[in-house]
Specification:
In the N-terminal section; belongs to the asparaginase 1 family. The protein is an alpha/beta fold. The chain has 4 domains: 99 residues, no CATH class; 241 residues, 3-Layer(aba) Sandwich (Rossmann fold), CATH 3.40.50; 129 residues, Rossmann fold (3-Layer(aba) Sandwich), CATH 3.40.50.40; 122 residues, Ankyrin repeat-containing domain (Serine Threonine Protein Phosphatase 5, Tetratricopeptide repeat), CATH 1.25.40. It is globular, with a radius of gyration of 27 Å. The structure holds asparagine (ASN). The site of asparagine (ASN) has 10 residues, from loops. The site of asparagine has 10 residues, from loops.
Length: 626
């Protein structure tokens, strides 16, 4: 073994090899094959000095957002066969490639995009500059949206979908989670509300947008809604960190577990009766950030594919017999959504019916009370509603039947929970699918004295202007509080209705600032109050990368635990930065990069790795266990 005791990197290797890096002696210092740069990429990087190539080489990754499009089927990609519409395999990418409004072939060729991302990748054209859009983020980041299409085989009419298909979608998202900024799922409209609801529960601790969309008329037709729906979904998924499973249709972005299909013959096919849209795409895309749901956890994203299929929907109607209800509630039934009248009412003059319901809940069947009405919530204001509570039913609030059913399926599959815990979970608001407690609604903006005083001094009167002032001031104030670690100030800002995820003029969020400063408690507070670990500032930097650069080890550990990872442009720069640390024998610096998930074998700008720069040793890297 080479004597490397005099080399600073040796101690580094020792430090890092305990407990999780294997130090091995090598003569051949070329990077492992799998880590070598793609030839095209290498050419691109090595041409950094050439001015005529400058346009191509200015870190395209930093200026690109990547979206994975999972094409499951539906009308959007259907063609006529024997006079009926059916999905057409292997046609979607080819046709989109010919449409300049959804694909820029010149950019793809100039940047050798297909070499890096594969032939099923397309790129949206650059949005034309528009003065109004600057205020709403569409062109603020000025990013190219590069999207890769993963087509399922077979493509399905959504009426043919099962819970297994939901599991497949979930697993594909999980597998690709770190490589993309957002996900779009092309899906038939008929059961889209069920899939959106199910995915919202299956995706635990979600930090990135997942947007379902489709169309009423195939994209191949001259007049169709598919193009607009696809474009809108891509633009939102690529540019905004909305950490929800959403549904985009007819210029509106909805929370996925709040929608229901209401029209079979209109482009405006969906409604979200109890929650306003999360975003509207009119002249500009306006996000209703106050409504966006956040996981508020420090746990990593994961997809739970176990679902209980012994669930069902039972709709009350006048004259329903007790024997029908009894038959429906027999084993193996474990969970039922009872669709009741009005605000959750059932006949209180039908002891035979109520007896069957009571027997079932006593036997451990969970029954959720949801209204048949499109809008509104269940309550116990009528005697006819109270009898259902007495029969052991759980109030479903303002949940859609689609959401209630998929929630049951998800909760009942949790083997680690007993019946009481499952019932409790069903009554709780898990993903913004219901308003469980109207009294607990948050303080409204007008309660904020601070903003009111400023508004008064500026002679502001209307709500919109008041909100504009709040949104302009509070991100900067929140960043200032994050800098000095003042959690109380952040709490006060939150109580005013401010969104702690919003960035300042440079897109820097309080989490970026707290990560730089190493305020662990502040980072913890922000993460448990909706801050996104995937937020990127104007320069494409994440809070994780900030914590690494300022050597905040504990913060790095917490961010990693929450699922933080480097962006592609940070990963590209990591190789070069680690080489320079290696050249300076900076072990601590290298260790923190490794802790944050960087690969010490990652080549720098000239193809050399940190290991090679040391000239002595090579690490077989496995990131330290967190
Ligand atoms: N518009 C549509 O996508 C309807 C189609 N039957 C489906 O759900 O797959």
């Amino acid at each position: 073994m080479a004597d490397s005791s005099t080399n600073g990197l040796t101690s580094l290797a020792r430090a890092l090899s305990q407990p999780s890096l294997d130090l091995i002696e090598v003569n051949d210092v070329s990077p492992p094959r799998s880590l070598q740069l793609h030839p095209g990429r290498r050419r691109k990087l090595s041409s950094c000095n050439s001015i005529e190539n400058a346009d191509l080489i200015t870190s395209p990754c930093a200026a690109e957002a990547r979206v994975l499009v999972i094409n499951t089927g539906g009308t959007i990609g259907m063609t006529l066969h024997d006079d009926v519409l059916a999905p057409q395999a292997n046609a979607f990418v080819k046709s989109l490639r010919k449409l300049p409004i959804v694909h820029d072939e010149t950019y793809a060729q100039q940047t050798r995009m297909y070499e890096y991302y594969g032939s099923d990748t397309l790129v949206l054209p650059k949005p034309a500059p528009h003065p109004d859009l600057q205020f709403h983020g569409l062109s603020k980041q000025n990013k190219r949206i590069v999207y890769t299409i993963l087509e399922y085989n077979p493509l399905l009419d959504s009426s043919n979908m099962t819970t297994d298909d939901w599991g497949r979608i979930g697993k594909d998202i999980e597998r690709n989670y770190e490589s993309y900024d957002g996900f779009v799922i092309l899906h038939g409209t008929d059961t889209m509300a069920y899939t959106a609801s199910a995915l919202s529960f299956m995706c635990e601790h979600l930090g990135k947008p997942i947007i379902l969309t489709g169309s009423q008329v195939p994209i191949y037709e001259m007049r169709n809604d598919g193009r607009d729906n696809l474009l809108g979904a891509l633009l939102i998924a690529g540019q905004f960190v909305i950490p929800e499973v959403c549904l985009y249709f007819y210029n509106k972005l909805y929370r996925g577990n709040r929608v229901t299909k209401v029209d079979a013959g209109s482009f405006n096919a969906f409604s979200s009766p109890n929650l306003p849209p999360l975003a509207t795409a009119e002249v500009d895309i306006a996000i209703n950030w106050d409504t966006v749901w956040r996981a508020n956890t420090t746990a990593k994203f994961q997809v739970k594919t176990e679902l209980n299929r012994n669930v069902g929907l039972l709709r009350l109607f006048p004259g329903i017999t007790a024997s029908t209800v009894k038959a429906f509630l027999q084993p193996p039934m474990e969970g039922v959504v009872l669709e009741t009248y009005g605000s959750g009412n059932a006949p209180d003059n039908r002891p035979d019916l109520l007896e069957q319901l009571k027997k079932a809940t006593d036997a451990g069947v969970i029954i959720i009370n949801c209204t048949q009405c499109l809008r509104g919530s269940v309550s116990t204001s009528y005697a006819t509603g109270k009898v259902l509570i007495e029969a052991g039913l759980i109030a479903g609030g303002d949940m859609t039947p689609e959401a209630a059913l998929s929630k049951l399926s998800y909760v009942l599959a949790k083997k680690e929970l007993d019946l009481e815990a499952k019932k409790k979970m069903m009554a709780e608001n898990l993903r913004g699918e219901m308003i469980a407690d109207l009294a607990g609604a948050k303080l409204c903006l007008s309660d904020s004295r601070f903003i009111q005083v400023i508004a008064k001094s500026l002679s502001v009167s209307c709500k919109e202007e008041l909100e504009a002032i709040r949104d302009a001031l509070t991100p900067t104030l929140a960043c200032a509080a994050a800098k000095i670690g003042d959690i109380e100030a952040l709490k006060a800002l939150k109580e005013m209705g401010s969104n702690l995820c919003l960035g300042d003029y440079d897109g820097r969020t309080p989490l970026h600032v707290a990560a730089c400063e190493g305020h662990l408690k502040m980072v913890q507070y922000l993460l448990s109050h909706g801050a996104s670990v995937h937020a990127k500032d104007r320069y494409g930097d994440t809070p994780l990368c900030n914590a690494v650069r300022f050597r905040r080890k504990e913060v790095v550990k917490l961010l990693r635990k929450t699922g933080a990872h480097f962006s592609r442009h940070e990963l590209e720069e990591a190789g070069t930065e680690m080489c320079s640390l290696a050249a300076n024998g900076d072990m601590d610096g290298l260790e923190i990069w490794s802790l944050a998930g960087a690969d010490l074998n990652q080549p720098g700008y000239d193809g050399q790795t940190a290991i090679q720069v040391s000239g002595v040793i090579q690490f077989k890297a496995t990131p330290p266990a967190l």
